[in-house]
Amino acid sequence: MSEPTSSVLMSIYSKVPSEQLRQCLASLVLQSRQPDQTVIVIDGPIPSDLQKLLDQYRDFQPDRVTLVPLAENGGLINALNIGLKHCIGDWILRMDADDLAMPDRFDVQLRLVAEQPEIDVLGCAMLEFDTEPRLPERLKPVIEAHDAIARALPFRNPINHPTACIRKSRLLEIGGYPDLALLEDYFLWAKLLKAGATFRNLAEPLYLFRFDDQTLQRRAGGENFRNEVWLRHWMYQAGLMSLPVLGMVTALQVIVRFSPLGVRRWLWHRSRKDCQLVIDLPTDI
Q1: What's the CATH code of the domain at 156?
Q2: What is the mean pLDDT of each run of 10 residues along the chain (285 residues)?
Q3: 20 to 30 A Cα–Cα from 267, which one of 47, 68, 100, 118?
């Protein structure tokens, strides 16, 4: 059994707070299994404190860290597709610049895809926190088996994008990340499922995700709703859902995207499990 090669793929832009980036990079440094490469796309000009942190991280592993500066901010989809061209690994390990990976995340995921070669996309559960990653308040559980993930796809996004370990060849087959603002990952899973990819989720939370009311606000509104409706119609045309399901999920999106913040916060809590954990996790580099 050959060892899978891997590239972490992440993007950063000017508005990421330096302390959050510091914590993210610290979680990469502390991985029990280091990736073969980390590709960080710098999406437009960034402040000097962010650049200093990135340079410090590159100096720590100069042969494994690739910084890709872009002259202008072109958005996440553009940044990920440019970064993908620089990835040398067989597997893409996604990561967001304001989150943290648990110390054994890469080891657990890469061992499993080596042991189960039928897997094309492997995600996992997440612990969510507001401000302090050592004290997560909630667990976002996941559906584990491929068939259950496929059944859930018409109703919701069943793969936590920043936790995903994705076979690069599958990504390239469908042309990389699709251009659908705010829903590029959801559209990606739909396209991969249509192309015959196999999915899996781990119930073990290997990722610490920053989530607050601002996150909920970004997921509301007209643009999200229009893109959700367009994507569900694409799924219907692709044979991934029936017409009655299309009508039902479109109606549900009205509630999800246009309800008052308090209602959306209640729905969000209903899909999570409360937890009281204290994680021994160094967050400095």
Answers
A1: 3.90.550.10
A2: 90 96 96 97 98 96 96 97 98 97 97 97 96 92 98 95 98 96 95 98 97 69 86 96 93 81 79 86 62
A3: 100
